[in-house]
Design brief:
Blueprint (H helix, E strand, L loop, with lengths): L6 E9 L7 E8 L6 H16 L2 E8 L13 E3 L2
Parallel strand pairs: 1-4, 2-3
Antiparallel strand pairs: 1-2
Length: 80
């Protein structure tokens, strides 16, 4: 999510159920200096909804808590 102040580079797309397409779940790291996490979360959810046209749920994670990926496909995590 380039262009949103306070976000770091690493993120994950989380797939909870196969075939579930009506809600996008994204976990994204935030920079340590960010104070208003709730406002940042709302801003990211609004931007994703506006740009992608889908309902979404964003989880903000501290910098360094999402494992670094080599390939884009590794950013998708299946939990089922």
């Amino acid at each position: 999510m380039t262009g949103i102040e306070g976000l770091a580079e690493d993120f994950q797309i989380i797939v909870d159920k196969p075939g579930e397409l009506d809600r996008l779940k994204v976990k994204i790291e935030h920079k340590p200096e960010v104070k208003g996490l709730r406002a940042l979360k709302n801003q990211v959810e609004e931007a994703l909804g506006r740009h992608l046209g889908v309902k979404n749920e964003v989880e903000l994670a501290p910098l360094g808590t999402i494992s670094r990926t080599t390939f884009k496909a590794q950013r998708v995590v299946k939990t089922y």
